[in-house]
Amino acid sequence: MRSQTTISCELRSLGVHAGDVVMVHASLRAIGPVEGGAVAIVAALRAAVGPEGTLMSYASWDRSPYEETLNGAQMTEDDRRSWPPFDPATAGTYRGFGLLNHYLAASPGAMRSAHPDASMVALGPRARYLTEPHRLGEAFGKGSPLERFVDDGGKVLLLGAGLDSVTVLHYAEAIAEIPGKRRITYEMPLRDADGQTVWQAVEDFDSNGILDCFALEGRPDGVETIARAYVPLGRHTEGQVGCAHCYLLEAQDIVAFGVRYLEQHYSPSSA
Predict the structure, then answer these.
(1) pTM for the full model?
(2) Is the pLDDT of residue 271 over 70?
(3) Which of 21, 116, 165, 185 has the smallest C-beta neighbourhood within 10 Å, fewest atoms?
(4) What is the share, in percent, of the chain residues with pLDDT greater than 90?
(5) What's the confidence (pLDDT) of residue 270?
(6) Where along the chain do its domains lie?
């Protein structure tokens, strides 16, 4: 069983430095037993980046009605009336993106972005800059927290998470100039100024498959495809934190690579 101090030292050995802006994707099971559990891991991450550094994670929302309203799917009126509106201060996090996000969101001083389904959590002096604004229709592209994270020179940390977890590559998908990008519609419940629930219609890029070839069941999506092409270049660092094999990637570099990869392989001139 590792201690919080050991985890923090291993993060620094991996390349996490004081003052860094780090987007974390973690598997607590892969990290293994740590004294103090997930709370201690959050503390170790905060110690590694120091008081000048900022942590960010993709939290989404455990009550997101994305699937229930996707591309015109209809909910019953009873379900619509009873569905809770998104509240960044109290909303749960989607467990499919890792339980560590719950503990980051619950940390004192954490900030949560206002987009229900693409909600980001940030903790540190750059938290407000990263999370505000986050408008519907700008989940992962221009105007989103991911754009500001990239512009801020952020680092992506995979703590035992797979290469299909590099969420920042959705930004590369959004800005790459390629034809045939898939679009989707869905609805999200928000609270208006009078405290009433209002369902807002949203149109955005399909983050589950930016092109038809990335939306096939059992096949890698665009994020995993790009990340697996990037890693062999050796422009990142790898190491062990706890029991987990980890990656640390420069966001600007992997996004620039991702844009080039998509444009070189999926533009008309590449045919």
Answers:
(1) 0.97
(2) no
(3) 185
(4) 98
(5) 64
(6) 4-270
